[in-house]
Specification:
The structure holds two protein chains of two kinds. Chain A is α+β, with helices and mostly antiparallel strands. Chain A contains 17 helices and 19 strands. In chain A, helix 9 packs across helix 11 and helix 10 packs across helix 13. Chain B has a single domain, classed as HUPs (Rossmann fold, 3-Layer(aba) Sandwich). Classes of the chains: A alpha+beta, B alpha/beta. Chain B: This is Electron transfer flavoprotein subunit beta.
Chain lengths: 472, 254
């Protein structure tokens, strides 16, 4: 079941990388000349301050929030509208220059790294919220609009966009990486919530994946191009507008925390809650190491044990039903009594502890860097993979608190590494590969929500998606 | 005690909008720009609704002074839980020169007419930052005031207010009827949900003219000019510390 690197494959990949290196240096000088040629054309499109060669600016646009090192582009351009994006793309196409779209730089897989140099299209100046139709539950936004900005804009309409990855990311960027968040178990990920996209292809052609201005709630017209581009991570085009599906803000929300004597009990409860058909909004798992880190970081005092953070949305009456059923299930799995949060302030405090998990994990070892794994498996396989993973962590002597959206079968090990300890980094790398392969063996995927980026292309092949890597 | 609370809500340019000054420097661009309820007024509405939910007061009345569009702001307050609204119609030139003095005269008149037990306002509006309406209203009514409130609790006919002041927190106890102004940390305002927005459409908003309340809207202030803050100038790089000191001396900074 496990994929083995046979000797001949190893040599093949080594030879390939040597050839690549030699090719790269020839490529480099050719590319630099091309960039010089096009600078004045770029400036005539975006204006003088719409083009930047400054080292600091290029470095800012060559990295995101992942552990991958900075790979700066040769030049950064700041277009203001889709016409400018299209004109710039055409020039890049004619001069064979790689194009890297950049939203907020909050990705976790190094997707913005300019591995072959090129032109970074920073889309932050395109920040309009267009065409809000509250009665149709849809809105169209440009790439500079982040999810929190959209929800703030919508607050008086009674609507919200529920997909909530940890960062305050660009919505078009979220479409490009098919992002997900804590609410996915009830509201879905970007794949379910993007209705239409305006995309600029590599040669400057502007297309609308569902037809210009169209926003029916469902369609069977033509190929599903929208979902081809969702998750394409900038490899097929630059997303310049996305039409999103909105939802009504829930009438009432209630959150609860419940701790369990074992990981198995916690995960079994999750599976049973979902199988009972309870429309739970959020169900997040934190293992004992993670809870301990959160307690220390946010000055809380949750019992240090495998824990579930739950959130229920609905009318007051439906909440009562949901909560009663969920409590029965957790108690049958020896879960503790629920710790409740009903009003906004208490709920926000509770969820802040979960959202700060990234920083809480790093605070466990000051000076360390964090890397997050991101596997996703079918629900019934969840108990097995988490238990096996925790065993692997102990055996590999690694610090990896686990937090995750177990409602989707998705969890993250927040690997906390000493940046100067190469042996530890190597062990983390091997652990992550074993984890991904474990997930693949259980009919899952190597990336539930963060994307493939720079680090998981080999794993994409193993997932049976080799044809996808050739496109990249 | 009537158990009635008046909450003032102001329609302002949304906090997330990038403000632009009109080319003739007479004011800021408001046409086609997103407007919403002043954030401190949202906190005031939330506090009033919370008091009603705790059954400490009986009715929340949302008041706004302005043109036709102010009704949208009142509807938002109704969707958050206010019971009814009062729209004081002020438009055109009168609206452009409307300031804390006139608004406080209007609120004082309404408070007497509605027999209000409490007036809760936001501490200031994010467009003019005056921080005067609450204090002026209390003075006109000769009522006690609890301003910059970060915590409010009712104790019979008295109100205990924890105020945010420069030195820390000050706790005062005042008699009702009183005026309170809400500070940032008083509460986290709820979102208007779809069912509540629907219900709000059925709640009543009364129309009143300032003249009916005997209020003169003449302003004693005239805005002469509005300017943007100065643009940030480019910095300059120097090679050595000596150069730095010399440059600082040249520009008169040391």
């Amino acid at each position: 079941m496990f994929f083995v690197m046979t000797p001949s494959r190893r040599l093949l990949s080594l030879r390939r990388s040597l050839v690549h290196c030699r090719g790269v240096s020839v490529e480099n000088t050719g590319r630099k000349a091309a960039v010089d040629r096009v600078l004045s054309a770029f400036r005539s499109i975006c204006g003088e301050d719409g083009v930047s060669l400054g080292e600091a600016i290029r470095e800012q646009h060559g990295k995101d929030e992942s552990v991958h090192r900075c790979r700066p582009p040769d030049v950064v351009v700041f277009p203001h509208c889709v016409e400018e994006v299209s004109a710039l793309a055409k020039i890049c196409h004619d001069n064979n220059l790689p194009i890297i779209p950049f939203g907020t730089g909050t990705g976790l897989e190094g997707g913005v790294g300019a591995v072959k140099g090129g032109v970074c299209f920073s889309l932050r100046n395109m920040e309009q919220i267009l065409d809000l139709h509250p009665e149709d539950f849809d809105v169209t936004v440009e790439p500079g609009v982040t999810r929190k900005a959209l929800n703030s804009h919508l607050r008086d309409t009674g609507l919200w966009f529920p997909v909530d990855p940890g960062a305050d990311a660009s919505l078009c960027g979220m479409a490009a990486t098919s992002a997900s968040g804590t609410n996915a178990v009830r509201y879905g990920t970007m794949r379910e919530n993007v209705m239409n996209l305006e995309v600029v292809l590599s040669d400057g052609t502007v297309i609308h994946t569902a037809g210009k201005g169209r926003r029916p709630r469902k369609t069977s017209a033509g190929y599903n191009l929208t979902n081809l581009f969702v998750g394409s991570e900038g490899t097929l085009g630059i997303i310049t507008k996305t039409t999103l599906r909105l939802y009504g803000i829930p009438e009432a929300m209630v959150s609860a925390v419940c701790s369990f004597p074992s990981v198995q009990a916690a995960v079994d409860s999750t599976v049973q809650i979902l199988q009972a058909g309870i429309p739970i909004a959020r169900i997040e798992f934190l293992d004992d190491v993670m809870i301990d880190a959160c307690n220390k970081f946010s000055s809380l005092s949750y019992p240090v044990a495998p824990t579930l953070f739950l959130e229920f949305h609905g009318s007051e009456r439906s909440l009562e039903e949901q909560v009663t059923m969920a409590e029965e299930i957790t108690q049958s799995n020896e879960g503790s009594d629920f710790q409740w949060a009903r009003d906004t302030e208490t709920r926000n405090r509770l969820w802040k502890a979960r959202h700060d998990a990234w920083y809480a994990a790093q605070a466990l070892r000051p000076g360390s860097k964090a890397y997050s794994t991101d596997v996703c498996v079918p629900l019934s396989r969840l108990p097995q993979i988490i238990v096996e993973t925790k065993k692997d962590l102990l055996e590999s002597r690694l610090t990896g608190p686990i937090a995750g959206h177990v409602g989707d079968g998705n969890f993250h090990c927040l690997m906390v590494v000493d940046p100067d300890d190469l042996d530890e980094q190597h062990r983390v790398h091997l652990f992550a590969e074993r984890l991904a392969r474990r997930a693949l063996a259980l009919d899952g995927t190597c990336t539930g929500e963060h994307g493939v980026g720079l680090g998981k292309r080999a794993l994409l092949c193993e997932e049976g998606l080799e044809h996808d890597t050739r496109l990249e | 005690m009537s158990g009635r609370v008046l909450v003032g809500v102001k329609r302002v340019i949304d906090y997330a909008v990038k403000i632009r000054v009109k080319p003739d420097n007479s004011g800021v661009v408001t046409d086609g720009v997103k407007h919403s309820m002043n954030p401190f007024c949202e906190i005031a509405v939330e506090e009033a609704v919370k008091l009603k939910e705790k059954k400490l007061i009986k009715e929340v009345v949302a008041v706004s002074c302005g043109p036709q569009q102010s009704q949208e702001t009142i509807r938002t307050a109704l969707a958050m839980g206010a019971d009814r609204g009062i729209h004081v119609e002020v438009s055109g030139k009168d609206y452009e020169t409307l300031g804390p003095l006139q608004v406080s005269k209007i609120l004082a008149a309404l408070a007497k007419k509605e027999d209000a037990q409490l007036i809760i306002l936001g501490k200031q509006a994010i467009d003019d930052d005056c921080n005067q309406t609450g204090q002026m209203t209390a003075a006109l009514l000769d009522w006690p005031q609890g301003t910059f409130a970060s915590e409010v609790s009712m104790d019979g006919a008295q109100v205990k207010v924890v105020r945010e002041i420069d030195g820390g927190l000050e706790t005062i106890k005042i008699n009702t009827p009183a005026v309170l102004t809400a500070d940032l940390r008083l509460n986290t305002p709820r979102y208007a949900t779809l069912p509540n927005i629907m219900k709000a459409k059925k709640k009543k908003i009364a129309n009143v003219k300032p003249a009916d309340l005997g209020v003169d809207l003449t302003s004693r202030l005239e805005v002469l000019r509005v300017d943007e803050p100065p643009q940030r100038q480019a910095g300059m790089k120097v090679e050595t510390v000596e150069d730095l000191v010399e440059k600082l001396r040249d520009t008169g900074m040391v």
